[in-house]
Write a structure and sequence with these properties.
single chain, mainly alpha, 6 helices, 79% helix
Length: 126
């Protein structure tokens, strides 16, 4: 199937989101360290960097038409896998100001549209 302009734009927008988030993991790692679930072994910074590397790799996979299908599917899996970090963030921020809580709680339902978006991008080349 020949990708349409809107499908290509959607894939590149997803790649941009993943790439920007991946870079943020290295540029400002502390907020990401804080949401690493305590049950994971090792240091939070290691997980922050690993997830940043993963996001950069996924961004590249989604951006390239040849790898877009698998990249989109892997990105959907990644978005599902990091959901526990969003739950931890919401829990940790439950006693903060309404604005901070709104951001933390708002991330929870946003994960599902990200998963759906990535799956659509993954199917757009098949």
């Amino acid at each position: 199937m020949e990708p349409t302009r809107s499908r290509t734009w959607s894939a590149l927008a997803l790649a941009g989101l993943l790439g920007a988030s991946g870079v943020a993991h290295f540029a400002k790692p502390k907020p990401f360290d804080a949401i690493v679930p305590n049950v994971l072994p090792g240091e939070p910074r290691t997980w922050t960097y690993l997830s940043g590397i993963t996001e950069l790799a996924l961004a590249a996979a989604v951006a390239v038409p040849r790898t877009r299908g698998v990249g989109g599917k892997l990105a959907a899996g990644f978005f599902a896998a990091v959901f526990p970090a969003n739950v931890k963030m919401a829990y940790d921020h439950r006693m903060k100001s309404p604005k901070v809580k709104a951001v933390a709680y708002g991330r929870l339902p946003l994960q599902l549209p990200l998963i759906v978006w990535a799956l659509r991008v993954g199917r757009s080349t098949s």
